Amino acid sequence: MLLRLETLTKRYRTGDLALTEVSLEIPAGQIVGLIGPSGAGKSTLIRCVNRLVEPTSGRVFLGKREITAMRGRALRRARRCMGMIFQEFALVERLSVMENVLTGRLGYVPFWRSFLRRFPQTDIDAAFALLDRVGLIEHADKRADALSGGQRQRVGIARALAQNPDLLLVDEPTASLDPKTSRQIMRLLREVCTERGLAAIVNIHDVALARQFVGRIIGLKAGRIVYDGAPDGLTPAILTRIYGEEDWGGEAHPSGPREATAAALTRDELVRAL
Ligand SMILES: Nc1ncnc2c1ncn2[C@@H]1O[C@H](COP(=O)(O)OP(=O)(O)OP(=O)(O)O)[C@@H](O)[C@H]1O
């Protein structure tokens, strides 16, 4: 098993219980879509895996290594094996596309080299190959802020792959993209995972998109897993269990900005869209 979560619980200092005893296993090469209403705990779960968020209790294993038992250098080394891709791309705007991809290698190069941004030739060659793979080779020297949203997300994907990860942690990769670009990005993610045998957890608001591109769906509600199975098993009854009868904004963020994409659809509209 590539990734194993054992009774993972997260309570924030504010008292919010974001995850309650979540256990799951993901084999190498599997792409999992994580769905659920706003505040269900999707981002928290993804961030507990690489300990950007510190779990309150429970354990995380990557292969045989226990991530939750690591500190310092061992943790940094383990994090290299987990590439993150973010909703807002999180690129360094003033750097070139190529330099952004190379930042994926920072966990590997000595500090002085990263400070001077001097990377080994093998890293540079690999970064060119990745830019070619994601269709951006002719944009290598452009500044990141000169690209479109879809192109920026491709840089985000290339950067994560530059780490040579075993697992991708993907947080709402298409939240700020139009439907066609969203499909292209999901297709690219699926292709690169297949080519490299990578597993991925993709936190995704758009259930129809998830069904189209992932092999397994985990539904979270109020910090607990309420569905884990094939996309085809997401019946209207199960969607109601995940999202509730009301519109699927959820009570957790009554007016939070993050629910904008989700709250626009009611459950009935969602069921019709599938
Ligand atoms: N840094 C934090 N401090 C305190 N509470 C937090 C923090 N981050 C998240 N929470 C709370 O934890 C719960 C789960 O939030 P999380 O962001 O993981 O959900 P989500 O499913 O990713 O939601 P969304 O789809 O809106 O991003 C919510 O009640 C949220 O308010």
Automatic annotation (TrEMBL):
CDD domains: ABC_PhnC_transporter (cd03256)
Alphabetical UniProt keywords: ATP-binding, Cell membrane, Membrane, Nucleotide-binding, Translocase, Transport
Domain named ABC transporter: residues: 3-247
Listed transmembrane segments: none
Domain of life: Bacteria
Gene3D superfamilies noted in UniProt: P-loop containing nucleotide triphosphate hydrolases
Membrane topology: Peripheral membrane protein
Keyword Ribonucleoprotein attached: no
InterPro entries xref list: AAA+_ATPase (IPR003593), ABC_transporter-like_ATP-bd (IPR003439), ABC_transporter-like_CS (IPR017871), ABC_transpr_PhnC (IPR012693), MetN_ABC_transporter-like (IPR050086), P-loop_NTPase (IPR027417)
Predominant localisation class: membrane
Subcellular location: Cell inner membrane
SMART domains membership: AAA (SM00382)
GO molecular function: ATP binding
Name assigned to this protein: Phosphonate ABC transporter ATP-binding protein
Organism: Thioalkalicoccus limnaeus
Record lineage: Bacteria, Pseudomonadati, Pseudomonadota, Gammaproteobacteria, Chromatiales
